[in-house]
């Protein structure tokens, strides 16, 4: 049976500056993006997005 480890990364919005380059770096390390979720919302709008990643444990 496969085993996985999990990781979260948070990105500020609205621009999510550096999100793509950070996710590409993590992908090269074997991390796979599973989902994203808005977090820390305020009346003025969304403040943060959290990315959930996994990779297989050898």
Write the layout of secondary structure elements.
Elements: E1 3-12, H1 19-28, E2 32-42, E3 45-57
Antiparallel strand pairs: 1-3, 2-3
- Tell me the fraction of residues in β-strands, as a range: over 45%
Structural class: alpha+beta
On the 0 to 100 scale, the average pLDDT is: 88
The amount of helix comes to: 10-25%
The counted number of beta strands is 3
Which stretches are poorly predicted, pLDDT < 50 over at least 5 residues? none
Give the biggest beta sheet: 3 strands, antiparallel
CATH class: Alpha Beta
Straight-line N-to-C gap: 11 Å
User: How does CATH name the architecture?
Assistant: 2-Layer Sandwich
Number of helices: 1
Shape summary: elongated
- Give me the CATH fold name: Alpha-Beta Plaits
- Rg result: 13 Å
Provide the succession of SSEs: EHEE
Count the domains.
1
Strand ordering within the main sheet: 1-3-2
Overview of the structural elements:
With 58 residues, the chain is α+β, with helices and mostly antiparallel strands. It has one domain: Alpha-Beta Plaits (2-Layer Sandwich). It has 1 helix and 3 strands; from the N terminus they run βαββ. The mean pLDDT is 88.
């Amino acid at each position: 049976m496969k085993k996985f480890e999990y990781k979260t990364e948070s990105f500020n919005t609205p621009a999510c500056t550096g999100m793509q380059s950070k996710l590409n770096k993590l992908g090269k390390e074997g991390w796979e993006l599973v989902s994203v979720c808005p977090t820390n919302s305020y009346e003025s709008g969304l403040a943060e997005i959290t990315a959930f990643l996994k990779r297989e444990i050898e």
